[in-house]
Amino acid sequence: MRFSQVSLILATGSAIIPHANAWGAVGHEVVATVAQMHLHPSVMPILCDILKYKGDCHLAPVAAWADKVRGLPQYRWTGPLHYIGATDDYPSETCAFPGEKGWEGRKNINVLSGIRNTTSVLEDYMDLRKAGLSTESDDDAAQVALKFLIHFVGDMHMPLHLTGRDRGGNGIKVSFDSRVTNLHSLWDGLLIAKRIRTIPSNYTRPLPLPEVESHLRGTIYDPYIRRVIWEGIMGKYEDELNSWLSCPAEPSVQTLQTNWEQWISWTFGRRIGSWIAGSRLTGGGLNTDDETLCPYHWATPIHALNCQIVFPKALDEPPYNRVSFSGTGEHACNSSNKAHDVHWLSRPRKNPYLELDTPQYSGVIEDSWIVEKLMSQGGIRLAAVLNWLFADMEDSTLPNRTYTL
Ligand SMILES: *[C@@H]1O[C@H](CO)[C@@H](O)[C@H](O)[C@H]1NC(C)=O
Ligand SMILES: *[C@@H]1O[C@H](CO)[C@@H](O)[C@H](O)[C@H]1NC(C)=O
Ligand SMILES: *[C@@H]1O[C@H](CO)[C@@H](O)[C@H](O)[C@H]1NC(C)=O
Ligand SMILES: *[C@@H]1O[C@H](CO)[C@@H](O)[C@H](O)[C@H]1NC(C)=O
C-alpha cells in the first residue's frame, strides 16, 4: 500500500476503504517495521541477503507473504501454523491456555511451535553458513523460514490467533459503525484502520528521528508507526521493554548450563534484555520455550485478552446469542473469503449484530492502547529474536544514536 492510497484515504475519509485483506496486512507490516528499527546494524544486511533483495530492502513487504501462499497446494499444510487453540477454550465464558484437555489440532503444528521451528531452522542455517557449508537449497529454506518467522511473531500478538473459538472469531458476525463484519476482521484490520483515520495531525510530519524515518516507506500507516514509537515505545512502554523480552528461568537449569552467552537487544541506543542461552522449558506442554525465546510465556497474557475484552459477554447473552453465525471456512485471515469485503463496502444499515464501535468496546481498546501495545511487543520481540539469531557477536558497536530518550 503506497502513497497513492494514503492520499485517497485522507481525501475521502472512510468513504473508500481498501479490501479488508489489505488491512490485515497492515498489522504485520507495522510489526515488521517496528522490528526493523530495533535491529543491530549487523543484522539487516544478512536479512536482506537471505530474503534475496536486490535494491531497497525492508521487512514489511514480506510480512504478509505467509497469508498469501497458504491457499497454494504446496503450502496448504502451513494453515494451522498461523494460530493455536486450547480444547477447553471458549472466551469469554472459559479461558484455557491450555486446560486439562490440552491443545486442539496436531501436536507441534501451531503458531508457537512455528516460531520455535523457524528459529531452529535459521539457527542451524547460520551455523552452516558461517562454516561456508550452506547450499542453495539451504538458502531457499532459510528464506522461507525467515518469512514465516516474521509472520508468526505478528500472528502471535493477535489475541484471536490464540483461540479456536469460532475459528478465531472468523465465524462471529458483529457490527462496526453499522457495517457487518466479523470479530477476526475487526481485530485484523478495522480497529487499526480507524486508528489510522483518526490519528493526530502532528504525525503526518516526519519525526526528528532519522532512526525512525529511514525505515518508513511512504505508506498509509507511516503516521501510525510514528505515534506507536513516539507515544508507545519511547513513551508509556519505555520502562516495560525489558520485561517484554524476559523468559522465566529455572535455577536448576542454569546450573546445568555449559554454554553461557549474553544476548542483548537495543532500542534507540539503549540496551534492553540480557539473555542467557539455556535449556528447553516445556511451555504449556508445547516444548517451545527456553530461557531465551519463550513464545508460550509471551502469548499467555495475550490470550487472556480474549476473556478480558476481545469477546464481549453480550455475544453469549440474548439477543445476540440467538443470531446465527455462518459456520464454514477456515480459521484466520482466509484470503479467499471475499464475503466480508462485500459487507464492509455495503451501505450502513440496521443489522442484527452486536455493535462494537462503542465507547465500551472500541473506545476502551483505543484508550488503553491495546492494539498498539500488541504491535509494539511484536516488533520488539521480533527484533530481539532476529538480533539473537543474526547479530555479529564480534561486532560490539551499538547503533549510532545521537539523541537520548
Ligand atoms: C477459505 O474459505 C472458503 C470458504 O469461505 C473455503 O472454501 C476455502 O477452502 C478456504 N481457503 C483456505 C485457504 O482455507
Ligand atoms: C519444522 O517443521 C517441519 C514440518 O513439520 C518439520 O519437517 C521440521 O523437522 C521442523 N523443524 C524443526 C527444526 O523442528
Ligand atoms: C502530537 O500531539 C499529541 C497530542 O495530541 C502529543 O501528545 C504528542 O507528543 C505529539 N507528538 C509529537 C511527535 O510532537
Ligand atoms: C556517530 O554519528 C556521529 C554524528 O553523526 C559521527 O560524528 C560519528 O562519527 C558516528 N560514529 C560512528 C562510530 O559511526
Automatic annotation (TrEMBL):
<comment type="similarity">
    <text>Belongs to the nuclease type I family.</text>
</comment>
<keyword id="KW-0255">Endonuclease</keyword>
<feature type="signal peptide">
    <location>
        <begin position="1"/>
        <end position="22"/>
    </location>
</feature>
<dbReference type="GO" id="GO:0006308">
    <property type="term" value="P:DNA catabolic process"/>
</dbReference>
<keyword id="KW-0732">Signal</keyword>
<keyword id="KW-0378">Hydrolase</keyword>
<dbReference type="GO" id="GO:0046872">
    <property type="term" value="F:metal ion binding"/>
</dbReference>
<dbReference type="GO" id="GO:0003676">
    <property type="term" value="F:nucleic acid binding"/>
</dbReference>
<protein>
    <submittedName>
        <fullName>Unplaced genomic scaffold CY34scaffold_489, whole genome shotgun sequence</fullName>
    </submittedName>
</protein>
<keyword id="KW-0540">Nuclease</keyword>
<dbReference type="InterPro" id="IPR003154">
    <property type="entry name" value="S1/P1nuclease"/>
</dbReference>
<dbReference type="InterPro" id="IPR008947">
    <property type="entry name" value="PLipase_C/P1_nuclease_dom_sf"/>
</dbReference>
<keyword id="KW-1015">Disulfide bond</keyword>
<dbReference type="GO" id="GO:0004519">
    <property type="term" value="F:endonuclease activity"/>
</dbReference>
<keyword id="KW-0325">Glycoprotein</keyword>
<keyword id="KW-0479">Metal-binding</keyword>
<dbReference type="GO" id="GO:0016788">
    <property type="term" value="F:hydrolase activity, acting on ester bonds"/>
</dbReference>
<dbReference type="Pfam" id="PF02265">
    <property type="entry name" value="S1-P1_nuclease"/>
</dbReference>
